Amino acid sequence: MQISNQKLMEMYSIMVRIRLFEERVSKEFAAGNIPGFVHVYLGEEAVATGACANLRTDDYITSTHRGHGHLIAKGGHTDLMMAELFGRKTGYCHGKGGSMHIADTELGILGANGIVGAGIPIAGGAALSAQMRGTDQVVICFLGDGASNRGTFHEAVNMAACWNLPVVYVIENNLYAEKTRITETSRVANLADRATAYGIPDVTVDGNDVIAVYEAVHEAVARARKGGGPTLVECKTYRWHGHFEGDPQTYKPKEEVEAWMKRDPIPAFRRKVVEMGAVTEAIAGQVDREIAEEIENTVKFARESPFPLPEEILQDVFA
Amino acid sequence: MREIGFNQAITEALDAEMARDPSVFIIGEDIGEPWGGSFGQFRGLAEKYGTKRIRDTPISETAILGGAIGAAATGMRPVAAMMFVDFLGVSGDELLNQLQMRYMYGGKIKLPITIIAASGAGASAAAQHSKSLHGWLLNVQGLKVVAPSTPYDAKGLLRSCIRDDNPVVFLTHKLLGGVTGQVPDGDFTVPIGKADIKRQGKDVTVVALALMVHRALSAAQKLQEKGISVEVIDARTVKPLDKQAIFDSVKKTGRLVIMDEEPVTGSWASEVAAAVAEEAFDHLDAPIKRVCAPDTPVPFSPVLERAWMPSEEALIKAVEGVM
User: SS3 string of A165-214?
Assistant: First the structure.
């Protein structure tokens, strides 16, 4: 399919933004500037980017515990994200949520979620809402290979299929649910094969190829928007870091890590778009510099922001 | 005013709110025709509002409550019909972790959800279909819980629950289905968080909810004949508790007995007792008593179940004990 130069450029920028944001998060966490625990999206950038490039601002996403990439791809503000990670008052949730609970309803981001698989029924509800309100909004529900083994997956996908809801399930199969390999917890070669059980279409793509992800999700989103119901898209990818920052990752074979690191989705895409003439090396370099500066500023913003006041504990319990 | 049944009051409240607000819809198992829900409280609504707004679901409690959350976060006002309150355990994560979205997201999302579920023992339904759970629900932050005892309160409270911008659990005791009472014509609501004095008295305050209010009223009548004047307070709302109404009554009577259909440990009764002990201790002339169920699951056999449930006799004994 024909993808405009502008779209290609946009996808390149978003992947770089996710990459630099996450590299910085990893660094700031190691330095002790981010409390709690964080799960970074390094290596999986092409999935969120290619999927969300098909959405409008008023479309929805539900995210996961590894949500930073999804939020950035849906337009999330990196400064508000970083401030939240730092536990500051200026953060997305005023310091009440942290890494796993960032939402931006104006951008259709229905939240990262600390419970694996919990976003799947919520995505169905948002899709039902869109259908009942008579809009053509679409929901992308991101979930991991681990979440595909939860009961929420079965209940919610089945219900969405029965009701023909406008939702696209994007499984990010990064091979590991926490530390456990998917081959130990599933007998199907492709998790997307499970779509058969719900009578919905499925597609499996290389999750490190942003164009492949974009095209697969493009078709699924178009179908959902026209009332054609849900699709299950599996993106095969790899989590460069551990389940959480600080995870020693002794469960990953060295050769496997090396092989996947060679398949870094960003330089491959950059070479491709430069070859295609969609972007020049000079412009790509400029994008890199601008985003590096943006990320630097997010840390400055977070550091200089005040912490919330203890009395704010009592706020936002009830509407 | 008209005389209607408890279930009829619920149907009327749902009907009125669905007519009033097109964003209200009901999602749950077997709520459509011909059953209209396991207790018939949704009967006729699917015919009137269509199956798009009265959504019969697969047996998928997680998807029902999770779906309600997603819909509420995006502009709808769902009523999640969970059938039996025991089934909230099936959607435990949605209840416990997902309904807390508003707080976690720094107040950015509002979740106007009414969770309607049947509670209570007395139908020989055994441990998985007989719980009350309101004490357990006290510990879910960000949640309001109501448990009415009369058709008037049921109709008025349910309308308030649906209009509330927060998640509220509306509990309907199974044995109240046949209870009738006077209900005004037209639009009225009963505010969440407001107790009601169901019987005035001067010697002892009895605080109760739902079915227990009826047992307390019956006991109060018998105690009157023995010369003891009991004030019966129907808390109506489990959380937020109308502490002031209870304190005011205790100031008058000096004695407090709480009747609560739940295992005693960690019960709602314990919370009421603690509130009075902390904030109105000086007004007490006798120790606070709790008339609750024992710390066991709800048994099946009618003989065992009767013994399990807090009885009128047990309440009479407790009241006499504090005199």
Answer: CCEEEEEEECCEECCEEHHHCCCCCCHHHHHHHHCCCEEEEECCCHHHHH
| Total count of residues recorded for chain B | 323
CA distance A11 to A295: 17
Q: In 3D, which of A90, A190, A206, A100 has the Cα closest to residue A148?
A: A190
Chain centroid to CA A146: how far? 15
* A216 CB-side CA count, 13 A: 31
Which one-letter DSSP state was computed for residue A104?
Answer: B
* Sequence-ordered strand ranges (E) for B57-140: 77-84, 114-119
Distance CA A114, CA B104 (A): 10
CA distance B94 to B173: 23
Answer yes or no: do B105 and A102 touch at CB < 8 A: yes
Does residue B214 have an active-site annotation?
no
Residue A25 CB partners (closer than 8 Å, separation 6+): A34, A38, A40, A68, A82, A85, A245
* Mean pLDDT (chain A, rounded): 97
User: Does residue A115 belong to the interface with chain B, where contact is any CB pair within 8 Å?
Assistant: yes
* Percent of chain A residues past pLDDT 70, beyond the cut: 100
Q: Domain A5-303 belongs to what topology? A: Rossmann fold (3.40.50)
pLDDT at B74: 98
Categorize the per-residue pLDDT at B257 as very low, low, confident or very high, splitting at 50, 70 and 90.
Answer: very high
The residues, any chain, with a CB within 8 Å of residue A278's CB and separated by 6 or more, are A5, A8, A9
CA distance B195 to B6: 18
Query: In chain B, which ranges are continuous DSSP H helix?
Result: 6-20, 45-49, 61-72, 92-93, 101-104, 134-137, 151-163, 210-225, 243-253, 268-279, 302-308, 312-322
Cβ contact, residue pair A151, B103, below 8 Å: no
Q: Give yes or no on whether B2-183 and B196-322 have one common fold.
A: yes
Total beta-carbon pairs less than 8 A apart between chain A and chain B = 148
Domain B196-322 has CATH 3.40.50.920: yes
What is the spatial distance between Cα B226 and Cα B223, in angstroms, rounded to a whole number? 5
Judged by a CB distance cut-off of 8 A, whether residue A246 touches chain B is no
Contacts of B320 (CB under 8 A, 6+ apart): B223, B226, B228
Rounded to a whole number of angstroms, the distance from the CA of B317 to the nearest CA of chain A is 40
Q: Count CB neighbours of B124 within 10 A.
A: 15
Q: Which residues of B touch A110 (CB under 8 A)?
A: 70, 73-74, 109
- The pLDDT-based confidence of B191 (bands split at 50, 70, 90) is very high
Domain regions of chain B by residue span = 2-183, 196-322
Q: Is the Cβ–Cβ distance between B309 and B261 less than 8 Å?
A: yes
Six token digits for residue A166: 């406008």
Sequence ranges of the domains in chain A: 5-303
CA A13 to chain B, closest CA, distance in angstroms equals 27
SS3 content of chain A, % helix, strand, coil (to 5): 50, 10, 40
CATH 3.40.50.970 fits domain B2-183: yes
Question: Could you give the CA distance from residue B81 to residue B163 in angstroms, rounded to a whole number?
Answer: 16
pTM (2 decimals)? 0.97
Q: Which two tokens stand for residue A211?
A: 């164009």
Enumerate the β-bridge partners of residue B54.
B26
Give the Cα separation of B129 and B174 in Å (integer). Answer: 10
| A138-154 pLDDT per residue, tens | 999 999 999 999 999 99
pLDDT score at A100: 96
